[in-house]
Specification:
Oligomer: single chain
Strand order of the largest sheet: 3-4-2-5-1-6-7
CATH superfamily: P-loop containing nucleotide triphosphate hydrolases
Mean pLDDT: 91
Order of helices and strands: EHEHHHEEHEHEHEHHH
CATH topology: Rossmann fold
Shape: globular
Helix content: 25-40%
CATH architecture: 3-Layer(aba) Sandwich
Structural class: alpha/beta
Number of domains: 1
Largest sheet: 7 strands, mixed
Distance between the termini: 18 Å
Number of strands: 7
């Protein structure tokens, strides 16, 4: 059996459809391509959690049980309150919620905003340790992490746990800024922590059916940027689907005919990219 892969979905620029792409990919891999998937919501905005709890009619359970019993990502970062007691690390059963036969989630928690402590370097290794200690790569084909759209303690923790990362990107005049910031963060982590994380590629998101001449020029300009020109760009993309963007059906791509076709192609290309990178 091949070891499962951990993939972060990340961009330092907000509004690029990062969470929609992440949960759409995870849900499609699990429910249509028969892959075992764990979603980890590390974004303090916890939009992935809200969408999936809504889609599976678990919102009340999240509020009344998962939050109150701390069955969320926050538990992974807890420290003991006494210097005389060792840390008790979270076990899989403490935080993993089963959504479907092939789809599980570690829920997000808005209270992460109170816990960010970049000075405590040991906690940046908690997600990686959790995955390793619970042998989750033997359980799941894919572990997908929805990362914060900012440079933070949690960004580092997500990337340090990952084998690969995917960059969702919307075509606009500021597209390269998030890529440049992200590459700087990853270069620093690779050097300091001796990581072997690899880029799977950039995925264009929310692409209009008929791109204007100006949009095509922006796309060409972006792809010629020094920080981008040597990076892999997915041939598949996601289209702008208004109902999907506003969460009419909880931001689940497979709920709409058009976005379902898009996410199928993204998932097939993702699988192909993982196979290629794993064999190199």
């Amino acid at each position: 059996m091949k070891e499962g892969k951990v993939i972060s979905f990340i961009n330092m620029k907000g509004g690029v459809g990062k969470t929609t792409l992440c949960i759409g990919t995870g849900e499609y891999l699990a429910n249509f391509l028969n892959r075992k998937v764990l979603m980890i919501d590390v974004d303090p905005q916890f939009n992935a959690t809200q969408s999936l709890m809504g889609a599976y009619d678990r919102v009340d359970e999240y509020l009344d049980t998962f939050l109150k019993k701390n069955m969320t990502i926050r538990k992974l970062f807890e420290n003991t309150t006494s210097v005389y007691e060792p840390n008790e690390y979270a076990k899989a059963e403490d935080v993993i919620v089963k959504l479907d036969d092939n789809l599980d989630i570690i829920c997000g928690n808005i209270n992460l905003i109170f816990d960010d402590n970049s000075k405590d370097n040991s906690r940046t290794k908690r997600i990686r340790k959790f995955i390793r200690d619970n042998k989750l790569k033997e359980v799941y084909d894919f572990i997908l992490i929805d990362c914060p759209p900012t440079i933070s303690f949690y960004t580092d923790a997500s990337l340090m746990a990952s084998d690969y990362y995917i960059v969702p990107n919307r075509i606009d005049r500021y597209s390269s800024l998030g890529i440049t910031s992200l590459q700087s963060v990853i270069s620093r982590l690779v050097d300091e922590e001796e990581l072997s994380i690899q880029l799977l590629g950039i995925v264009y998101t929310m692409v209009e059916d008929n791109m204007t001449q100006k949009t095509r020029e922006l796309k060409e300009s972006f792809e010629c940027e020094e920080s981008v020109k040597d990076l892999y760009i997915f041939e598949s993309k996601t289209s702008f689907v208004r109902d999907l963007m506003v969460g009419y059906n909880e931001n689940i791509s497979s709920s709409y005919q058009k976005s379902k076709r898009d996410i199928e192609q993204v998932c097939l290309e993702l699988i192909e990219r993982v196979e290629v990178e794993s064999n190199e």
